[in-house]
């Protein structure tokens, strides 16, 4: 079916929240089993219908918006990474288990892909307890010595292993290698042929990279610790700041970087002239990334407390959680913040949605895709569209919870398609109907 037969109309209205400091309301605490695994970076993810996915211990959990368990999948291993959701809802993650065969210990890694109902779509050998990243076609990326799989977990060149990844909207992949180099790698085709774009030698170990406007930011350490920003376009300038951080940075619309440090300091580092930086002190280490709200506040955990700090670094409120913070927070489109503690997955009504654009939360978006998208926080952006046999496939980004796709055969009578959801800000359409010779589509965000 020719692509020119389709018309896509874009119409968007951003759901606005008043930037008024309101104390959060606890909605529920879902009890988590004891986790004897590693305290790795993690965050919940939100599915298209609003389901909250959370990796904890050996399990991947799916929790309803009312705090009840929808399903759980136990890998039988020791630790799972944060879920990364493909546009069609597939849940990608890696699990780790220590084994003894026949005498000497070794660590086993397994990559999983689950359907939104919790059944296994794929299971295969992994390359490390490293976070998945999701490409615009739904392909999964993983660092280390990855292998190709039927789901498209492509193999990177063996750069001595790799840190977690960040993928830009054009498909270039950024990561730190254990050889001390920081790399930008591009792929030339979907069969996994990769081309190196550039690299920079640091002789350091690297944290999770994140992408801003024309820059990639990451922490690196070798005795001393720093926050770096490297230009992703020719002619750009670099950025460096002293920063003893375990947490990953996040980036706002002005390309300012927010990060918590091991000494309990939470800081804003501006990268543009005319914007002031600031620091805010807490009494406990900050080891997980913050989440930025549409009201401009930064939300982060320290000890057993959740903090809300405004754009000037002034505390707006502090909320006591049931236990020590064990994940980064994530903010849904209807103003609910989800955060993991050492004993609960907690939901709080905070009366603001997520910030748009750049890299406002640990996984960049509500799917934990670890990929910068064309979405600017306000206007619908088409990621991918293609005519397929007897149908059409499309991926678009929109304000969370505000988008839908309609179809028509005559441009007059429109039907809202029921196979579309957008609670996580991603509209996914896979529409196959062999009886139709022509169909038009309209995307809107009322």
In short:
With 446 residues, the protein is an all-beta fold.
Protein architecture, described:
- This protein is an all-beta fold and 446 residues long.
- Helix content is 0%, strand content 43%.
- The chain folds into 2 domains: 3-349, 7 Propeller (Methylamine Dehydrogenase, Chain H); 381-445, Sandwich (Immunoglobulin-like).
- It has strands at 8-12, 25-31, 45-46, 52-56, 59-63, 69-74, 79-80, 84-85, 91-100, 105-114, 120-125, 133-134, 140-141, 166-167, 173-176, 181-187, 194-201, 205-206, 210-211, 215-222, 224-231, 239-242, 250-251, 257-260, 265-269, 278-281, 291-292, 298-302, 305-309, 315-320, 330-331, 336-340, 344-349, 381-388, 391-397, 404-408, 415-416, 426-432, 440-445.
- The protein is globular, with a radius of gyration of 21 Å.
- The chain starts with 7 loop residues before the first strand and ends with a strand.
The average pLDDT value, as a whole number, equals 84
| Domain count | 2
Shape: globular
Approximately how much beta-strand content do the residues carry?
Answer: 35-45%
Q: What is the fold-level CATH name, i.e. the topology of the largest domain?
A: Methylamine Dehydrogenase, Chain H
> What top-tier CATH class of the largest domain fits best?
Mainly Beta
Radius of gyration: 21 Å
- Classified in CATH, the superfamily of the largest domain is YVTN repeat-like/Quinoprotein amine dehydrogenase
Main beta sheet strand tally, sense and closure = 5 strands, antiparallel
* CATH architecture label name of the largest domain: 7 Propeller
Number of strands: 39
Terminal Cα span? 29 Å
Broad structural category: mainly beta
Give unreliable regions as ranges: 1-19, 146-155
Give helix % range: under 10%
Number of helices: 0
């Amino acid at each position: 079916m020719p692509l020119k037969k389709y018309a896509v109309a874009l119409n968007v209205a951003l759901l606005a929240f008043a930037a008024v400091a309101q104390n959060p309301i606890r909605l529920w605490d879902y009890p988590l089993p004891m986790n004897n695994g590693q305290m790795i970076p993690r965050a919940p993810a939100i599915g298209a219908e609003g389901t909250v996915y959370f990796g904890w211990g050996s399990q991947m959990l799916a929790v309803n918006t009312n705090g009840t368990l929808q399903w759980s999948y136990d890998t039988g291993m020791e630790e799972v990474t944060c879920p990364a959701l493909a546009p069609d809802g597939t849940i990608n993650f890696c699990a780790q288990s220590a084994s003894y065969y026949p005498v000497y210990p070794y660590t086993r890694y397994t990559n999983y892909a689950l359907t939104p109902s919790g059944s296994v779509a794929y299971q295969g050998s992994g390359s490390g307890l490293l976070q998945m990243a999701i490409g615009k076609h739904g392909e999964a990326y993983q660092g280390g010595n990855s292998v190709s799989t039927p789901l498209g977990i492509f193999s990177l060149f063996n750069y001595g292993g790799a840190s977690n990844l960040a993928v830009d909207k054009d498909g270039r992949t950024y990561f730190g290698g254990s050889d001390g180099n920081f790399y930008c790698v591009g792929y030339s085709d979907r069969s996994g042929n990769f081309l190196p774009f550039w690299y920079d030698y640091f002789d350091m170990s690297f944290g999770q990279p994140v992408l801003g406007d024309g820059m990639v930011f990451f922490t690196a350490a070798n005795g001393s610790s720093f926050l770096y920003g490297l230009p992703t376009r020719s002619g750009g300038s670099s950025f460096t700041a002293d920063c003893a951080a375990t947490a990953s940075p996040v980036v706002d619309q002005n390309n300012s970087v927010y990060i918590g440090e091991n000494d309990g300091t939470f800081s804003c580092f501006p990268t543009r002239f005319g914007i002031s930086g600031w620091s805010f002190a807490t009494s406990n280490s900050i080891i997980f990334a913050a989440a930025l709200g549409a009201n401009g506040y930064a939300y982060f955990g320290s000890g057993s407390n959740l903090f809300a700090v405004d754009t000037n670094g002034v505390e707006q409120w502090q909320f006591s959680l049931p236990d020590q913070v064990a994940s980064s927070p994530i903010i849904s489109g209807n103003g609910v913040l989800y955060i993991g503690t050492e004993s609960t997955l907690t939901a709080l009504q905070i009366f603001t949605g997520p910030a748009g654009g750049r890299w406002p939360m640990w996984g960049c978006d509500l799917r934990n895709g670890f990929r910068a998208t064309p979405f600017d926080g306000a206007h619908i952006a088409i990621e991918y569209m293609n005519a397929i046999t007897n149908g059409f496939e499309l991926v678009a980004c929109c304000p969370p919870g505000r988008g839908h796709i309609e179809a028509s055969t005559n441009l007059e009578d429109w039907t809202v398609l029921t196979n579309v959801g957008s609670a996580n800000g991603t509209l996914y359409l896979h529409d196959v109907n062999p009886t139709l010779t022509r169909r038009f589509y309209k995307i809107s965000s009322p």
